Amino acid sequence: MLNALRRRLSRAMLADPAYTFLFEAGPPDEVVVIDCETTGLNPRKDEIITVAAIHVRGERILTSACFEAVARTERKSHPDAIKVHRIFDAEARAGRPMRQILPELLRFIGGRPIVGYYTDFDVRMLDRYLTRLLNIRLPNPRIDVSALYYDRKYKGAPDHLMIDLSFASILRDLGIPPLAQHDALNDALMTAMIYLQLRDMARRGARIARDRAGAVVGLGAAG
After folding, report:
1. Whole-angstrom Cα distance, residue 44 to residue 124?
2. In sequence order, what are the beta bridge partners of 51?
3. Each residue's pLDDT tens digit, 70-95
4. Phi, psi of 48 (to 5 degrees)
5. Which of 111, 122, 201, 209 falls between 20 and 30 A from 146, CA-CA?
6. pTM, rounded to two decimals
């Protein structure tokens, strides 16, 4: 009820009616996987450097339906961020302004649920630009693969168990080969593979088994 009210209020605040499609249901059984690389980890101050998105329809990752863009930034990347995404400030300055990229990205997203790894961070970064353009935040439902992974591995685990939700651990546990990380498109593709595998496990009631120390011992049926 509360989410429905927020969506109605957000739609009423929409600055441009050409974007009402954001509030309409996306194509059946489709989601969009999104990943952003940024100048840092502060959504209030930092900026997007690259953004990528991929459609997933049913059990298929539509690699032919990808979105990728390099954004022009005003804020310099933190040195630690450059070590991660390997995009230097000169490259970022050669990109397009987010005000040009965002309308294209929004049309690619449509009304689809947004899937990501720690989805809230990427959405908060996008919302910084969206509020300036349309006076709203993204209204799309969100699916976080780290939460799906937690449910398959740690739900109901003892309180003393050390919980590891790192991207590398998720890939390793699911047997997904790692691509070069901190490339937005590669990260989106790996996240899509994670999403499909965890969704299938949830449907089958399967869990990621642990030994007493918490190490993974294989994929097993829920008991």
Report:
1. 9
2. 36, 69
3. 998 875 555 555 545 455 555 656 68
4. -80, 135
5. 111
6. 0.86
